[in-house]
Amino acid sequence: MNINTIVNEQFHGKTFKELVDCPLTALCGIGPNQAKALEDAFGVTTIGQLAGLKVVAHAVAIEMMAGVETQPQGDAAKETLLDEAVEMTFPASDPISVDAGITRIEVAPDKVDASRDHQNASAIAASNEEAVGQSCVGSPDKQPGSA
What we know:
Layout: H1 16-20, H2 32-42, H3 47-52, H4 54-66, H5 73-89, H6 114-117, H7 121-132
């Protein structure tokens, strides 16, 4: 590490042992106002005192552990159960869920009569009727053009 990138210019060339006893303003980014605020809040005036704060050690530990943290055990178990459920039901359209918050649609929605839904349904039905002599599409009570 190039220490000159993290300490102010007047502290360049000092050893780490010397820097531990230097004021907080030796660190780049900490001016007199920030140093005073740290002194008022935590009672620290030197780099060594700041580094020795338990709250700083805890923050560093949390940040380090976040980089290697794995998925919580409960979430991993749910994901495994869901993967297995999907594998067992594939290619079914409704795989089971491990979460009770997901509900299943029990009643299918009304379906549109596809023979009447097409933009040229009337023309197709008329052409088929002309060729065959009777209606070939839909039920006899619902002819093209009727409501």
